Amino acid sequence: MAYHFWFTNTCSIVKTKVNIPQCMQPWDIKSMPINEGSTSKSSGRLEQLKRFLALSRTPHGLMDMATPAFAVLLYLGSFPPVHVVIIGMMTAFAGYTAVYALNDIIDYRTDMAKGGESALTAETYLDSLMIRHPMAQGLLTYRQGIMWVTGWSLVALMGAYILNPICVVIFLIGTALETIYCLLWRVSPWRSVISGFVKNSGPVAALFAVDPHPAPFFAVLLFLGLFFWEIGGQNILADWTDKDLAQGLHAKTIPIMLGVQKSASLVLITLTGATVLMIFLFWLYSPIWEWVAALAAAITCFYLLLIPGIKLYLAQDRDHAMALFNKASYFPLVLLGIVLGLISVMQGFK
Predict the structure, then answer these.
(1) pTM value?
(2) CA-to-CA distance for 128 and 238, rounded, in angstroms?
(3) CA distances from 200 to 47, 256, 301 (A)
(4) How would DSSP label each residue in 125-185?
(5) How confident is the model over 168-181, as pLDDT tens digits?
(6) Domains of the chain as residue ranges with CATH
């Protein structure tokens, strides 16, 4: 009886202090978990990492990394040396991570003004697969954002210098243009032209990483094709999704200044230009089966760009703008898949 009284009271005390769901036998106490604190710290660090990755819109950034990759593979018709691939991938990831986060740092006050009303659901908008604008939502401090951008910028600069010092210059120009682009939000709708140059900084730098003197005609075709894809398949559409809120904040974007009808026409024109240029590029520079490569590029452009672009032109609404943005975002990734397939077939014949 004395043992029963002592053990019952001991169990009640233990339950109060450590929240055990039911009284345990003395021989079971040794199996209790003792690492709950470390688990909590680990989950906290993981959550913080997710916020930083959201600041850089990492899912979208990873897809954009396919742009310099497909450009280099199509240009060479083969894989570059292993060390170039490894350093190039690290540099590209660091560069895209830094520049995407830089956008949120420069637009910090604007995003604060937009508030929660600008949140777009992950089901409909690719850039909201993770938390949108975590600094503006108070999930990261401005100082943390600066440190994140600075760290990845240093990694990008070191990698760029190893590959080719001219890549450092291209990266610095790209970040400067990104800053100007953000500052022109309330100034001019033609800031979209700058975004076309920023988006091309990655693939152009990649060409210089594998060839100190890349072929001018290839570089021009690539630049113009990606330029028109960025304008019609990304930039105008991203501004379209925030059109109503941005209008209240006196922004000057293409959808606001030109209206939805002219904006939809401009989207369709630029995507048509991107289609023609990419088909021509793949036909001229495919390592094997030029007509197959051109046909694959044409199918990709029609499915990801032109068909949803025509739907937007007919509907002229926000939902179709988001749908086109999402599909067009996969454009570089699919082109990379085509080039990888062509190179694999070519190597299989050797």
Answers:
(1) 0.83
(2) 12
(3) 32, 25, 18
(4) -GGGSS-SSTTTTTSS-HHHHHHHHHHHHHHHHHHHHHH-HHHHHHHHHHHHHHHHHHHTT
(5) 999 999 999 999 99
(6) 58-345 (1.10.357.140)
